[in-house]
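Morning run. Coffee first, then this:
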Amino acid sequence: MTSFYSVKSFYLRLWVRKSGLLATAALILSPFLPAQNWPSFRGPDGSGIGAGNPPVRWNVSTGDNILWKTPVPGLSHSSPVVWGSRVFVATAVEVTPGSADVKTGWLNGTGESAADKGTWSWKLFCLDRDTGRILWERTARTGVPRIRRHRKATHANSTPATDGKWVVASFGAEGLYCYDMQGKEIWRRDLGTFQTGPHNDTSLEWGYASSPIIYRDRVIVQCDATNVSFWASFDLASGKEIRRVMRGEQTTTWSTPLVVEYKGRPQLVCNGWKQMAGYDLYTGEKLWFLHDGGDCPVPAPQWGHGLIYITNGHGKSPVFAVRPEARGDLTPANSESVPAGLAWWVPRGGSYMPTPLVLGDLFVVAGDNGMITAWDAVSGKEVRKEPLKNAGTFSASLVAARDHCYFPNEEGDVHVLRIGRQGFEVLARNPMGEFCFATPAVSGEKLLVRTRHHLFCIGSR
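And here it is:
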C-alpha cells in the first residue's frame, strides 16, 4: 500500500520541478519529506532504518538501476548523509598523490599502522541528490596527519551530521567543523590529539572513527583514546563548548554515541570497554555503566522497545539490553546473573565491527565474518543464527528499508537480505566493482553507496 508520505512527497516533488526552484525549494520542503533525510551515521537516530524502498537488484556494469555515479577523491570510510536534495560526504586527500590505500579482508591479527607520508587535505563535499553533481567542496584543513591510521582505516572515517541548517564534520585530531548548507564555514574546534591504538601497545595508532551527532541545538562528540577520554557537547550555532565530561576509559572507542529520550530527559549512551555508560546529557551525571566487554568497541548503541542495546566484539563479545531507568554498576557478576538494570544479556554473539539493527521485534547482529544472529528484542531469546556463505569480510553496517536489509562486504558486494523469524533469505548480491567500508544511506526510494573511488546512487529506472 502506498503511504501517505509517499503520495505527499510525489506531489511536492512535482511542484518543485515545475517551479524551477529545485535547490532552494528542496531545502524548504525537506522537513516535509522525512523519508529522503538520512541525517547522520545510520540515518535517523542512528537506527539504520529507512522509510523508503530502494531496489533489490542493480548492475554497475550495465547501469541497470544506477541513477548516477560520481567520483569522490581521496581515501575515506565516511558514509554519505542526506538532507532534502543535498548529499554530504567527507574525505581525506593526499596533496601529492602517493601509494596510500586500504587493505581488505582478514589481516591475521596484525595491528600495523599505515606508513603514510606527506601532506593531506581534509574535505567536505556537497552533491545534488538527484543528479550527483558536486555543488561545492570545502577544505577543512591541510597538513601532515596528527595521528596515524590502521591499514584498514583512513584519515576520514567519521560520518558528517546535519539538521538541514548546519552540517558538521569531524576529522578527529584534525578538528571539528561546522558549515551552513551553502558551504560557508561557521566555526571550527580543535578536539586535541589522540593516541588511538590498543591499550596494551602505544606504539600503534589506528585512527579516529566516532561520528558526531546532532541533538536539538547541540552537536555531541565522543573522544575515547588511551591518552584522553571524554564526551563533549557544543552549541550547534556558535560552536561554544557547553559541557565536557571525562569518561575514564582505558582504550580507544570507535563507536558513535546515541541520545535516548526517556521521561522527558535526554540520556547520552556511549559504548566502551571500561565505560559502557549512560549520562544525563544536560548535567553530565553518569547514570549507569558496564565494563568488561570487548576492548576495542566499534558498534554504536541502539534503541528500541524501550531498551538500550550495546555490543562489542574484540576479545569478548557480549550483548546487553539496558533499561533506561537503570542506575549504577550493571556489570553481571557471572554468566547466570542479570542485574535489575538489564532486561537481558548474553556473553557471546556480539559484533566486532558492524553496528546491529533493531528490526521489528528482533535484535539483529551481523558480524564482520558474515554470521547473522537474531534475538527476540524484548526477551533476549535467540531466534536464528546463520552464516552468509562465502560472504567475505564486513566492516560496513547493516541498514534496512521495508523488509530488505543491505549489507556490503569489504570487497564491494552488497548483499540484500530478508531477515525474519523463519530464516534469512539472500535476495541478491550486487557487486559494486570497488571495495566498500562505508555504511549505505537510504534516501526515500534511493540507496547511496560509498565505495573506494565513487559515490553511487541506486534507484529504479
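The longest helix spans residues 4-19. Good start to the day.
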